[in-house]
Design brief:
The protein is an alpha/beta fold. It contains 9 helices and 10 strands. The strands form 2 sheets. The protein has a 5-stranded mixed sheet, with helices on one face.
């Protein structure tokens, strides 16, 4: 019987991502949800996208960074003069192999779903990049699913559901503590934030992963932090 895992905001840190898959011994029987922001900031967005696109049991949701990149790519003609504001385009365009796959990457990111509902172990999980409250509404506003932090700010959650989000690094919620970032649970256990700030090692960030079956938490830290 496979396990179900959740992570978010990998932000181009493909080495951490690959090491995490090894740590949890991710197999064809398992399921992994990634709650958006696979690209930008880190050095290797293609390394993450290639794995996710090749695995049917990895379900990625759209984050504000995927949404922003697709919008820029499709609407900006002169990509040299009107440069993308993060590093993803430059990194992908710099290598012939990834440059040729750019249209494929864009199509994939454009078609990513905004949310998921998952029922397991007696819980109903609502998953989205930033806020899950729109999931239960008839008219779902994309901007709130991708950007809204009020769910985290209020820390009350939605009765009857467990919301799992990313977007806000957990070290921000905890007030920038000296300890390394870890998965955050709201006091009433209705909200889980799995964004442990993988691209912000200088602030204690690392890649976090939560197993929904067991509650176990897994972490991978940049190798340079151990030197």
């Amino acid at each position: 019987m496979g396990r179900t895992y959740v992570m978010s905001d990998i932000h181009g840190m493909s080495e951490l991502f690959q090491r995490m898959l090894e740590q949890i011994r991710f197999s064809d029987e398992d399921t992994l949800y990634i709650l958006g922001d696979m690209i930008d900031r880190g050095p290797d967005p293609a390394g993450i996208l290639d794995i996710v696109m090749a695995c049917d049991n990895i379900i990625a949701l759209k984050g504000n960074h995927e949404d922003g990149f697709v919008e820029w790519y499709e609407n900006v003609g002169d990509k040299v003069q009107q440069r993308y504001y993060y590093n993803t385009y430059d990194v992908l365009a710099d290598c012939e192999a990834t440059r040729e796959k750019l249209p494929e990457y864009v199509r994939f990111m454009k078609n990513l779903p905004l949310y998921r509902k998952v029922k397991m172990n007696g819980n109903c999980y609502l998953m989205a990049h930033a806020s899950t409250e729109e999931i239960l509404r008839v008219w779902k506003r994309k901007e709130r699913l991708l950007w809204d932090t009020s769910l985290i700010d209020r820390q009350t959650g939605i009765p009857g559901y467990v919301s799992i989000v990313g977007h806000v690094p957990t070290f921000i919620i905890r007030g920038y503590p000296k300890e390394q970032a870890s998965v955050w649970h709201s006091p009433n256990r209705r909200i889980i934030d799995v964004d442990c700030g993988a691209a912000f090692s200088d602030l204690g960030g690392r890649l976090g992963c939560l197993c929904l079956d067991t509650g176990e938490e897994y972490y991978e830290t940049s190798l340079q932090d151990h030197k």
